[in-house]
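Researcher: Next entry: 1-acyl-sn-glycerol-3-phosphate acyltransferase (Streptosporangium becharense).
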Amino acid sequence: MRRPGWPSRFWVAFAVTIVKPISWLLVKKDWRRGDLLPRTGGIIMVTNHLSWLDPLLIAHFLYNNGRWPVILAKSGLFSVPVIGHMVRALRAIPVYRGSDNAARSLEAARRGLAAGACVMFYPEGTCTRDPELWPMEGKTGAARLALETGAPVIPVAHWGAQEILPYGSRRPRPLPRKTFRVLAGPPVDLSRYEGRPLRADVLREATADIMAAITAQLAELRGEKPPETPFKRPSDK
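Model: Predicted structure:
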């Protein structure tokens, strides 16, 4: 029987056969507090974005902790021959940026949560442009989804993928072998927004709370103090 929110056994086996060996080959693991990820029920997993490589490595972390990542991916991937079929089969959700179809992504995520999926969000919408690689301001999609559905928001910070493949680079630097650090946190407390109309200001405040939770996890991983004000996210990237 298929687990809620998971692809078919064939596609799970296919993805695991590819992802796990690559992940183990590329990085050493420092994974912490995976026990904070609920094993059942719909959850919204939010994380920072440092490299084109980190979705693969975070997917390994989630899988090893009993969750299948339903990733929001650029809609263009779904029209690529072969690749498009694969990402659909793996339960990814297309993101229609800069179009009237953007709401379709959230609707698909709502259905996934109702089916018990772990929906994986990058609230920044792109790899961070902060010079010191701290999380930027976030988009409001994850907050809206959480306040509409009541699904728990689990912050997960990571560090290390950027040392292998920095943002914008096409040349990986696998040697010497790097350490990929991950730290999960408790659900973000959004209780003060319950019952409030989902106006723009409410969504921005809830999003700021979500980004603050991710940043706090990352600060612990890095052993450094984050900036007091998040870097302003590019509006069109």
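Model: Note for the record: The beta strands are 27-32, 43-47, 69-74, 93-95, 118-121, 153-159, 178-184.
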